[in-house]
Amino acid sequence: MGETLNLVAVTRPVSLSMNACELTHLSREMIDVSRARDQHAAYEGLLASLGCEIVRVAAADELPDAVFVEDTAVVVDEVAILTRPGAGSRRKEVAAVGDALVDHRALRQLEAPGTVDGGDVIVHGRDVFVGRSARTNDAGIAQLRDFLEEYAYVVRPVNFVGALHLKTAVTAVADDIQLLNPRWLPEKLPVAAGRVVEVHPDEPFAANALRIGNTVLHGAQFPRTRERLEAAGVHTIPVDLSELSKAEGGVTCCSLILRALQARSS
Ligand code: CIR
Questions:
Q1: Is 163 in contact with 132 (CB distance < 8 Å)?
Q2: What count of other Cβ atoms lies within 10 Å of the Cβ of residue 88?
Q3: Which residue's CA is minimally distant from atom 3 of ligand 1?
Q4: Ligand 1, closest atom to CA 90?
Q5: Which of 47, 95, 150, 223 to pair with 200, CA 20 to 30 A apart?
Q6: Structure pTM?
Q7: How far is C-alpha 19 from the geometric centre of its chain's CA atoms?
Q8: Neighbours of 171 (CB within 10 A)
Q9: Nearest in space to 154 (alpha carbons), one of 257, 76, 263
Q10: CA 249 to ligand 1: nearest atom
């Protein structure tokens, strides 16, 4: 592999109650929790093999969507902002993630009436793109801006349609390449200096990719889009999260990836 990444991946176990998860665009299908746990363990193993130290938040079997830790915080090198998720059922997930992050970052907390899901937030250099969605409102975006501009980040609201989160519609797969579903993202983001890989039309959910150094984790159910990524020179590893995808989760949702830094005073 050759890279020393020094990354931390915060994860949380699949909850026993996962079949009561929030659903927006998909019809409810039975989730095999045991299989979801195996897939999640393989995902964690892959992150560890790529050089991430896994920091596991305590299980919360009564919180159906707890595995999707991405939505509970926005983390940059200087600070972690604990969110107030847009779905009321998910707000109790946040405190325990804060307990896991406190050793790694100074913490801030979003307050009502603001709502933000981390899945709507893409940090790219000093730019922070935030999707306006059913989960993320303008009051939440304004609070994020207040917290982040202190550290010279520029918060840029983004409009998108049809997807649950911004990262369902677009992710950066290299410094200069974004992967997107053009039907869900009418305006391309100015990430990645203009190179674009579009998802295969038969794979609308394939824009969610998780970049770890020079490797991109990508849903195993999207082989046609993966071909496009490889053709663009992006090294991908397919990950089978088929059970978690029934809960509208993808590869980014199941972790918070942060650079390993010493804790800072709050
Ligand atoms: C929800 O609707 O909140 C969960 N069932 C799925 C969350 C997926 N998270 C993400 O895309 N960041």
A1: no
A2: 10
A3: 22
A4: 3
A5: 47
A6: 0.95
A7: 21
A8: 26
A9: 76
A10: 8
